[in-house]
Amino acid sequence: MDLTSALLDWYDRHARVLPWRLPPGSPDRPDPYRVWLAEVMLQQTTVAAVRPRWERFVARWPDIGSLADAPDAAVMEEWAGLGYYARARNLLACARAVAAVGEFPRTEAELRRLPGLGAYTAASVAAIAFGEPAAVVDGNVERVIARLDDLDEPLPAARRTIRDRVAQLVPADRPGDFAQAMMDLGATICTPRRPACGLCPWRDACLSRRHGTELSRPVKPPRRTVPEREGVVYVGRRDDGGWLLETRPADRMLGGMPGFPGSAWDRGETEAPPPVPGPWEELPARARHGFTHFALVLRVRVARLSRDTVIPETLFVGELRPESLPTVMRRVWDVARTAPQLADPLSGAPAD
């Protein structure tokens, strides 16, 4: 069975329609900027979440030059809610590096030298945008290949085997379509819990289907215990309606993002004095958020601040737009928003 031909035939009929893609078999090349932006956004994020955000990004910054010229704060704000905020900082660094030379590199090896482009992103841009027969391997592809060959070697040790297998299958004439076909197969057919094996173009060749092991492939390492960290955050509203905010330092988690001041919880600091004098009160509820390597529990303290409160240079008083906050700070806002101290100073209604 010619696995590559079978997959591409299936893709020609069932490819997902996505705004950053060209139709299967198109003789044209997609815009590398659009491909790169989509692939960066799709890391650890679903297509459903990425699609509207990608469209907003492209509408606001339609090419690499306009993104390179964008203020850091504007890009970080637009990224809010997509998570993994180091990606946004790398996005800007990469855009500026590409704009400085005038165009994207065209090979996987050259793309790897750009800021923030790991093996997956470099391979996907090289294959999809430039037609290089690169082996594109993400979590979906790992699952598909582990099931196809019924690999009992656990991840991450099996990744070299999987990558070599993908490299054997990549066609020289349609590497971009092959890469996207593999992504679609893993996302829509060879899903983690309920694979639709009867619809799979590789069903007859799939060893795990034959052996009944598809739900146990790929083999994952034992789940490790995620440590818990604690911290404190201060949500203050001034009598004139302004909110006490910070722009997080570039060398900290969520660097460059807006948020509420508090302890350095990303560095293990559980307590911090109030950022400004005020009648601070701790709320009974906690804000909770899970990061990749730890779970965070934040105590939330609120206060109504007078207009003559002296604001340190590291902070500012401004308009609060919850949608511009990173997810952990929106969790803080969900806890704080109904506190009487934060009610609208004109209407007395809870903050929205």
Structural summary, described in words:
The protein is an alpha+beta fold. The protein folds into 2 domains: 3-216, Endonuclease III, domain 1; 228-342, Nucleoside Triphosphate Pyrophosphohydrolase, CATH 3.90.79. The protein is 38% helix and 12% strand. The protein is built from 13 helices and 6 strands. The chain has helices at residues 3-14, 32-42, 47-60, 64-68, 72-79, 86-101, 108-111, 119-130, 139-148, 159-169, 175-189, 207-211, 327-336, and strands at residues 228-238, 243-247, 258-259, 281-290, 295-305, 315-318. The strands form 2 sheets. A 3-stranded mixed β-sheet has the order 1-5-4, covered by helices on one side. A 3-stranded antiparallel β-sheet has the order 3-2-6. α2 packs antiparallel against α8, α8 (119-130) crosses α11 (175-189) and α9 crosses α11 (175-189). The radius of gyration is 24 Å and the shape is elongated. The protein starts with a helix and ends in a 16-residue tail after the last helix.
| SS field, number of helical segments | 13
Instruction: Give the % helix.
Output: 25-40%
In the CATH hierarchy, the third-tier topology of the largest domain is known as Endonuclease III, domain 1
Distance between the termini: 59 Å
Low-confidence parts, pLDDT < 50 over ≥5 residues?
none
Q: Whole-number average pLDDT?
A: 93
Q: How many beta-strand runs?
A: 6
The CATH homologous superfamily of the largest domain is termed: Hypothetical protein, domain 2
Major beta sheet, specifics? 3 strands, mixed
How many individual domains? Answer: 2
The general outline is: elongated
Strand portion, in percent? 5-15%
What string gives the helices and strands in order? HHHHHHHHHHHHEEEEEEH
Strand order of the largest sheet: 1-5-4
